[in-house]
Amino acid sequence: MAVAHKSVISFGLVAIPISMYTAVQDNDIHFNQLHQEDKERIKYKKICSHCGKEITSKEIIKGYQYDPDHYVVVTDDDLEKIKTEKEKSIQILHFAELNQISPVYFDKSYQAIPEAGGDKAFELLREALMAQQKVAIGKTVMGTKETLLVIIPREEGIIISTMFYEDEIKDLPKGYNKPELSEAELSMAKTLINSMDTPFNPSEYKDEYQIKLRELLETKIEGKEVVSPKEEAQSNIINLMDALKASIEQNKKDTKPKPKPKRETHKKGA
Amino acid sequence: MDIFESKNIKPMLIGEMQDAFDSPDYIYELKLDGDRCIAYLDKNGTDLRNKRNAKMLVKVPELSEIHKQVKYPCILDGELIVVKDGKPDFSEIQRRAITSNSFKIKLASTKLPATFTAFDILYYKDHEVIDLPLMQRKKLLEMTVKENERLAVSRYIEEQGVEFYKLSEQNQLEGIVAKRKDSRYYFDKRTKDWIKIKNLLDDDFIICGYILKDKGAASIILGQYSNNCHKELVYKGHVILGMSAADFKIIKSMPETGMPFNDLPSGNDNAVWIKPELVCTVKYMMKTSNGGLRQPVYKGLRDDKKPEDCII
């Protein structure tokens, strides 16, 4: 699994080098676009809207459209220059409680693993956060964006989740009435909730559509593979190793008639 | 902590390469073209870790039952391989290692299932056995493991290294390894007690960029770090790769950057330079006098080696 981001958590005087790995993976089935006639892949070509020439990636630069027909060009160097060393590390700003953060703020989650030399400080941070039941709020630069983060301790390690800024969260699209509720109605609803209260167990939930889609594909693929001989799958490394060993031993027997001790006495005699 | 509990073994590595030889002090085994892994097996389950200590069982779920093939808790050292057309196929196991979609892994695991071939035992019942001489570890390994399709024990030949090497060559296998019979196991050490004997050489390089060619091919630009305190990237030539290859998509998706070398020969005018973070293995016949690769063949990306460990 490739490292998504490398950073350093700076916490007071301590710097903890870490690698961040993406915490989720996409198991969905994705289709490719094929040309109906010959079943070959559809390709995308990048073409300049002005001259019509096909453009390779090294001819492409970044621009910002500030007017319908006007762009300012921004180079990677420009972007690199406005980053500072400080921003490349994860600065812990303060500590808070997890339930103070509305779930709407969470974006992507990563699993953090300490890099060489960071094990002790990493474990110290995790244990202390667990004991205090706190999370750390921090900031860093990822890509070109200054990102808000929350560092969440778990039994098995540390999860770092990127967060949206307040101005990225939309207001309710429209208001709705909140009618008065009677005590009886509320207590009935509460009873219903309590009667259906079981712990959340993520392994119980599966995407049923994806399961059916996989089954469909497996049958279609198997249907195709019947054509090719299946014996190939029988080849086994044990058979190969045994066969090689046996052929060495066979050769050994064949050459054995010349008794070894005799040759040795010859040498000594010579 | 007990090494079974902490699960962060760094395996012993081969430290020598030479021509085939016969010696009564050595045993000879096939060098299987796969992914080196350590298997931690006990009644609770199977845990497979590669050289970088990444958990490999998610990539090879068909091996999740191999702990049932051992009599006692044990740690085995071996090679994770996929056999295709009767031979270990490196590109298949590498492809598996870089796949994460669970459906693609499932399809691959039924079509070309992987095998763990154990060649050493490092822990038995409740204690380390690395101080035992190799031949005693081999005996212990054979006693502990009951082979099946997914878990094999590496076969070895005594004394006849030359003959065995010839046979491996005839069967177009990667080569053989000679191991001293009385040798001990040292974690994280390159040992001269293990000697590889191979026809083709290979080495790992950092992918620094690529040049698009006609007919859907690309030249991959290779580099390695110099072995001095400056650790600068040194240009090591090209290897051809098909643009349709899955690996090329990964290479192409790397962020672009500036030319990383101090010294660049001609023929690199149309290069696209990428962040030097991908490692690939390249086979070659021999090195040219100026250090270039003769007849290089791209073998695949590898996930278990850091770029900074690709040193000249």
- Structural Rg of chain B: 20 Å
N- and C-termini, Cα separation of chain A:
64 Å
Shape of chain B: globular
Summarize the amount of helix of chain B as a percent range: 10-25%
Class derived from helix and strand content of chain A: alpha+beta
Percent of residues of chain A in helical segments? 25-40%
Strand content of chain B: 35-45%
Q: How would a textbook summarize the main sheet of chain A?
A: 7 strands, mixed, barrel
Largest interface: A-B, 30 and 40 residues
The secondary-structure class of chain B comes to alpha+beta
Tags for this model:
heterodimer, A: 270 residues, alpha+beta, Ku70, Chain: A, Domain 2, seven-stranded mixed barrel, two-stranded antiparallel sheet, 7 helices, 9 strands, 31% helix, extended, B: 312 residues, D-amino Acid Aminotransferase, Chain A, domain 1, OB fold (Dihydrolipoamide Acetyltransferase, E2P), 2 domains, seven-stranded mixed beta sheet, five-stranded mixed beta sheet, 16% helix, 41% strand, globular
Report on this model:
The complex is a heterodimer of chains A (270) and B (312). Helix content of chain A is 31%, strand content 24%. Chain A has 270 residues and is of the alpha+beta class. Chain A has a domain at 5-25 and 82-167: Ku70, Chain: A, Domain 2. Chain B has 312 residues and is an alpha+beta fold. Chain B has two domains: 3-198, D-amino Acid Aminotransferase, Chain A, domain 1 (2-Layer Sandwich), CATH 3.30.470.30; 201-309, OB fold (Dihydrolipoamide Acetyltransferase, E2P), CATH 2.40.50.140. Chain B has six helices and 19 strands. In chain B, strands 3, 4, 5, 6, 7, 8 and 9 form a seven-stranded mixed sheet that branches. A five-stranded mixed sheet of chain B has the order 1-12-11-2-10. Classes of the chains: A alpha+beta (270), B alpha+beta (312). The interface between A and B is medium-sized, with 30 and 40 residues.
